[in-house]
Structure formats: structure tokens, C-alpha cells
What does this fold into?
Amino acid sequence: MMPGATLSLTAVHHAQLQTHLFPGDGEEAAAVLVCSRVPGKRLRLLVRDVVLVAHEACRKRTEHSLTWPATFIEQAIDLGERESLSLVLLHSHPSGYRDFSRTDDDSDRAIMPCIFQAFGDLHGSAVMTPDGTVFARLYTHQGDQIPVDLVSVASADLHFWWWKERHRGAKRPMAFTSQMTSDLSRLTACVIGLSGTGSPMAEQACRLGFGRVIAIDHDRVEIKNLNRIINTTLADAQAKRPKVAVFAERAKLYREEPFFEAVEANVMTRSAVLAAAQSDVLFCCVDTHRGRMIADRLAAAFLLPLFDVGVAIPTRQTEDGLAIAEVTGRIDYVYPGGSSLGDRGVYTPATLQAEALAETDPQAHRERVKAGYIEGSPEQAPSVITLNMRAASACMMEFIARAFPYRQVSNAGYARTRFMLAEGFEEATAEGEFIAKRSGLLAAGAAEPLLGLPFLGLEENTR
It folds into this structure.
């Protein structure tokens, strides 16, 4: 069953809260989460700010109860009232009790009406246990209670804490098992770009058992890319059918219930961004710098883990003509608050500007991008499906390694992985080797302009 309500935190906020809520004295502590929302039909809260309740300000702190002054809630109201954000009152259970107690229920009944009287239409409460697990519930203005089905934190590892499995704590299913499939059945994957690397990426997402798969692409099938886009046929190319429509037609045969959403739109449009915002994990498989910039902003604004994949075949000039210098693939994993694709130089202001200028000659731009597999060669139908599938598989394995850890070393050492097939070499770059710049978009959610980009504020655009 797909989650009806979710709450997401950055790794920094989660670590800050765990340190504050468990100071080592075995007594409860508290904080207030100020949360934005994801636009669209999905009820998803994003922790934007945290108000820590000073331990010494509490009138009473014991292992099972806590009394703290309303001034900290007032601080949170000041932060959230202008944008009508949501407040979630968080406290610790040092004993490890994995449910709301009667004391918690009584406290919510007394405090929630006061918060609603101040502002807003959705607030809640949450508990953290010593292992870092968080579970939560929300309240409407009418007093209806909504369990938060999923609390997520993206760091070097991906943490998904399910309301119905809160008693299992931080223990995660073993990778490659039916229990992993069960967890995936409640998550939504978004694949941006459904071409060379995107089609095998979407295929894996469908076959692995993601409960919902969203695919975004505005392009159409052509004869020259039949040799690298799986599930496409000659008839599809002759009819110039949309890539997402072709994939959706095949995907619906995989399961009895509908699960695949085809979004025929450029990722640079509002409709595409709003669709991607409904996901739990992003897979970026585009071949443009601006597409990757949008994916970067999506990850920050909606607190989503992002996996970006790219391939290249650089060439060298020899006495006999052009020859392969290397056959490479790159997978970058980005989490909100860590280093971005921009921080890592995957795209730069110069490359973004060059692409924008290329719009004056769109046809030349499209040809330049599509011919980019083999550098220095005008090959229009490169035989790269094996390379694409190798890279797409490595990208999906990075997701599995973080959501259902199987590595014998820390995932923090694999912010970027690169393989070089000609040289027979693979390397990894740790998150700490990149310099992360602070993003003003973190947990921006539905704030306009969307993703901080004015052109996405338009109801319709044709980029």
C-alpha cells in the first residue's frame, strides 16, 4: 500500500535532533519541526527549520514525561505563520518505547487546539527513539488524526521508517530479498529521461517492484535510437510515438494493477517538476546540463535522494584514424544538504549558458546532444546499449546499497563512482572530497517560484 502521508528530514537535521533529544541523561527532551509541503495531491511534509527546546528551560524532565514552556512553540509559530507551514512537536522516548503513550495523547489533546487557533490547517506530533527511528502523526483543524505512513531521511544511507513497522526500529530488510521488494512496493521512483540509460533504468524500477514509477520525457522514438532504447519497435519509430507512451504500453503488462505514470513533458516545465515532486527517489538519465540542474533543484527543494548517471566514449586520433580512448560511466549520488551535482562540476554556469544560447538553433542543439556518446564522431546510431545498461545497472545498485545496505564499507565513500572499461578500472569518490555549498532551496517545497526559477511559475511554458 502506498503511503498516504510522509515526513522527510535532511541528514543534518536528523543528526542535530538525535544529539539534542538524547543528551545522555536518560530523560525526555523536545523540539519543534517547522515543515513546508510538497505541492500536489500527495501529503508530504518537509522539515525546513528546527526549534530545539532547551533542556534547562523544561519544568520537568523524566524518563517518561516532559513539561516545557510554550515560548518555544511561539518561536515556531513565528517561523511558520507567514507561509502557513506545519508544526510537528517532536520528543524522545529514551526507553525505546515505539508508540505514542497515553501521556502523549493527553498532551496532544491539550496543545494542538492552541496551535490551530494561532494558524494553519495541519499540524502534528512525533517521537524519536534512541536508534534514530522517527514515527509521527498529524491532526487536521477538525481534530481528525492521520498517521504518517513514512518518515524518511536521506544521508549516505537511505532511511525509510514505516508507521506499521515502527516496532522493528532501525533494522532494515536484507537486500535482494522478498522483504526488500515489499518495502519497495510502497515507494515511488521517478525516472527523468527515458532514452539510452533511462529506459533500462525505468525497466529495473518496474521489475524490482517499486509501487509506482513516474517517467518524464518529451521526446519521440526515432529509427536511429531503436538500437539502444528497450521496448521500442520499428512501428513506434515510424509513427514517431512518444517514448513515455511506448514504455507505458509495455509496462502495464507487467502487473495487474496500474502503477506506471507517463509524463510527456520536458523536465524544464512546471508539469514535469510537479510530477517528479510526488516521488520518493529521483533517477536522472538526461543528456543535458539544464536537465541535471533541474534534478539538482528538485532534490534540494523536496528533500529527495538523487541518482544521476552519465556515459561517455572519448576518442583519440591515431595514425590509422579515430580510435576509442576510453569507455566510461559515472554515477553520482546526491542527498539534500550534501554536495550537489553543481558543486561537483557535473554542470557549470558556462555549460548552462551554452545550452541556453543553443536554443537559437534548436535543431543543431538536438543533434549535438544526441551525437554526444562518441566524442569526435558524427555517429547518429551508436551501438551503446551495453554501456548504457552497465551504467544504469550500476546506478540502481547504488540505490539498493543505500536503502538496503550490503557493502562491507561505508556508503559515504561512494558519493561518485566511475568505471573505465578500456582500462579495466573502477574508482569511488567520497562525499567529503566535494565542497558543498549551502542551498537556499532546502525544503522549499511549494514555495513560489517553484524551484526558485521564475519561468516555472507560469501556468504553461514550452521549454
Remarks:
- The chain has two domains: 5-168, 178-457.
- The chain has a mean pLDDT of 93.
- The CA atoms of residues 155 and 329 lie 23 Å apart.
- The longest helix spans residues 385-403.
